[in-house]
Design brief:
By secondary structure, this protein is mainly alpha-helical. The chain contains six helices and no strands. The protein is 67% helix and 0% strand. It is elongated, with a radius of gyration of 34 Å.
């Protein structure tokens, strides 16, 4: 009898749980819109994935929020503004170009030019060193004597 009661309770809990499934957007145009919006927003948990790609609970909640706002008739701009107001500009994959994001946008260009300048400097320096005249006979003898004196000191 206890076993039968336990089975009935388990079956009822499964049936109750089935009602909690999140509905999907049936309209393909609306679904594409929701996915496009989700691809523009960063998952705040994963930080390297959009909320469309992430399986984190927060990403699922944000996708549901997008679907709810679409159902309420809000525009894409209104939905993105809502997310930015709520989570800050970090939620955007493509933050706007302004003073606070200047280094983010110009940083790669600055690094590229700095790397190019360092490369050009090193290449010029190499060329100057390569083009130095060879040692004269006197300089060669002096270098050999200094090397020989260094070897003698090590032996002692």
């Amino acid at each position: 009898m206890k076993m039968l009661l336990l089975m009935v309770v388990l079956l009822l809990s499964v049936a109750v749980r089935a009602d909690e499934a999140t509905p999907t957007v049936a309209d393909p145009v609306t679904n594409k819109r929701a996915v496009r919006l989700a691809e523009q927003l960063r998952c705040l948990v994963c930080q390297n994935q959009s909320i469309a790609e992430s399986n984190a609970e927060l990403a699922v909640d944000l996708r549901n929020q997008i679907n709810q706002q679409i159902a309420q008739g809000r525009s894409d701009l209104e939905i993105v503004d809502f997310m930015v107001d709520r989570y800050g500009e970090f939620v955007l994959y493509r933050p706007p170009f302004k003073a606070t994001t200047l280094l983010l946008w110009l940083g790669p260009v600055i690094l590229l030019f700095t790397g190019g300048a360092v490369l050009a400097y090193n290449l010029r320096r190499r060329r100057v060193l390569r083009d130095e005249p060879p040692l004269s006979a006197e300089e060669q003898k002096r270098a050999e004597s200094l090397l020989a004196a260094g070897v003698e000191r090590k032996r002692q």
